[in-house]
Amino acid sequence: MSSPNTLALRRSPQRTPPPTPRSLWQSPRKQPAAAKPPPPALSSSSLFADPKHLLTPRPLPSDQPDKAAKAAKAARAAQNAQKLRRQLLAKAAARKKTTTMFSNKKTKRNRDDDDEDDDDNNDDIDDEAASGDATDDDREADFDNSQGDAADDADMVGQHRIIFMERAFSDDEEQGNNKICRPQKEIDEIIFLLEHWEVDTALKAVTDPEHYRVVKSFRETHRKGYKWVKLYWLHYIQVGDTTRAVLRRKESNHATGGRIVASRESVFDAIDEWHREKGHIGQERTHAFCRTKYYNCTQALVKIYCETCYVCMRWNPTVAPMKGSRKPIRSNGYRARFQIDLIDFRKMRKRDPFGVLMRWIVTVKDHSTGFTYVSAIPRKTAHFVAHRLQELFGLIGYPSIFHTDNGKEFTARAILKFLRNINPSIITVTGRPRKPSDQGSVESMNRLVKRLIGSELAQRRANADAG
After folding, report:
1. Contact (Cβ atoms closer than 8 angstroms) between residue 263 and residue 189
2. What is the pTM of this model?
């Protein structure tokens, strides 16, 4: 039986002893090298008597930065905030040269740029303080530039008004705008006549001789009033402390009894009211809004307004018309592309030798050589079209590209199945909806076919009448 001291001496020398409590609490700073003392001998009493020192955790480093790190962080925050302030002031100065119509779009772009700069450069900045300073400077710059933007906007609207009036109401206007939009002087004259006409009073029902003489004299003096009474009526509105008369057109099918008649001087404001407030919408939508309220805001006037609008011209610049196609279709050889279309001949229908009434004509044109095949069919269905195409393809062969419009007689399953049975590699192409120019080659041939057949039928009728 060995003692505890002899048990410690018999342990294997390869096993490293655990660190002492003093080594756990030593400072992490590097100490000069010194001779290591021999490890103390372990005994069973010291190993099991107080094992708590082996489970004591290492103390965590301090969470509070030192004073030098805090000073450097504050300096970087101030420097980045000053840089951001300079950028905002430069962008605010650049906004003076633009109009209010582009301010929303430009502000959004500037904010995106500011966000990207903050993400790249301000990693360790106090974001709340920096963003608060930038927001205050941005508000001050916007407040300083609001008056300049309003003045630029007013100048642009004034120039737009002058150009619109010159184009819409010139002396050589052929669209009739001068007739449908009367000057303000004539509108005031019509309002004066309707106010003193006593529309609800019938001349035969007047019993007072003096009143009868006054009403009859006024109506005989202003003969135009008999026409204006049938076309217009007055609607009185309250504007502040005064009552104003608004001229409206008599329309029985309208909910309010008639729409407002705008004068020549106020038609620009009537269109501008909808176009600018709705965000510079197109011609169709602007006219759809204007015609619900105003009687004489025609589509021609709305078109002139949109064509002379500076913002619309920048967003949708007009391109000078050029002869030919922008993207012409190029075919390399014979049967590379066939264009197919139908011609409506229901008004000049004729019977074939078998007595079948033919109402439609199928036109097939080779895009490369201009070879054209014309055949008549009784109905506008896919089965008749497939039958004619089968005759043609059996005669001259099938194409590489089968080009048609979006008609059901060309996109039906019968046509696709017919092409697949002939050759699965045939490519079917359809043009854009309501764009006949996509099949311009066959459309031009259709006009020639119509002219030739029409002239032939006219000659036959002339010969029949002469004979």
Report:
1. no
2. 0.43
